[in-house]
Write a structure and sequence with these properties.
- The protein has helices at residues 4-11, 20-23, 32-48, 50-64, 67-79, 83-96, 102-118, 122-135, 140-152, 156-169, 174-186, 190-203, 208-220, 224-237, 242-256, and strands spanning 265-267, 274-276.
- It has 15 helices and 2 strands.
- It is mainly alpha-helical.
- The radius of gyration is 24 Å and the shape is globular.
- Strand 1 and strand 2 form a beta hairpin.
Amino acid sequence: MYQSQIRLGNILWRGLFLTWFILNPVAVHSSESEQAIKYHACLRLAEANPIKGYKKGLEWYAVDGGIAARHCMAVSILFGGDNLNGASRLEVLERDIPKKKTVLRSQILAQAGQALLMEGLVDRSSQLLTKAINLNPENPELYLDRATARMDQLKYIQALHDLNQAIALDPNFGDAYLYRAYVKRDINDIAGAVTDIKRVLELLPGLPIAVLERGSLKELIGDKNGARKDWETIIKQVPSSKEAKAARIKIIGLDEKKPDDKIKKSVNTSNGSVLEK
């Protein structure tokens, strides 16, 4: 998958600073700031310790039965690794949110869609993300989310359309350029991929995942020294990262490949023809 796990980790925190009264219908009877702090603390606990986060959400739900508490419980389940259960709870939660809260509903559906994507349920994920886009068509993040699903479906042209739309909505959206570079590489538009990676690194200088991809693109166009330099830079700068691990593997692969210009040849002395071995 194309960084789906990273995408999920990021998407779970979208909208966490929404005021609590949007999520909980009884908030008008409480201190908004206190309840917002409570909501934020519950979500932070969900990330740090999913079991404790779920327990805190359950206790909160027992007091007032609010949507915010249910969301915290669902997020706890996702951070605990049970994506199917978490996604199911989020889908139910979205149906219980007032229809007019379209932005909030789209965020909840996007979370569910990404969780399903991590479980390999790509078609269902794409359906939920499409619904999220229909609810909030001006959010560039949602188009990127659906693009990741379409990439996993090998629907590269549709993914490209989504990424183009994300960038049209936000011309400085670094992640969208990164994923568009992946798509362009996969459809053999190497020049376009190189241009997009260059843009990513203008927006996010030194981003390891972008430097890693730039190295891969350099290898594809025959610049093996440039590829090695990019990968060695990652290893030096972030030696313990996943990107550094991938860079080491790529360097090993680079060393194991036989250069094209070293194809063994023999000459047939009877007719002078060249035979490649």
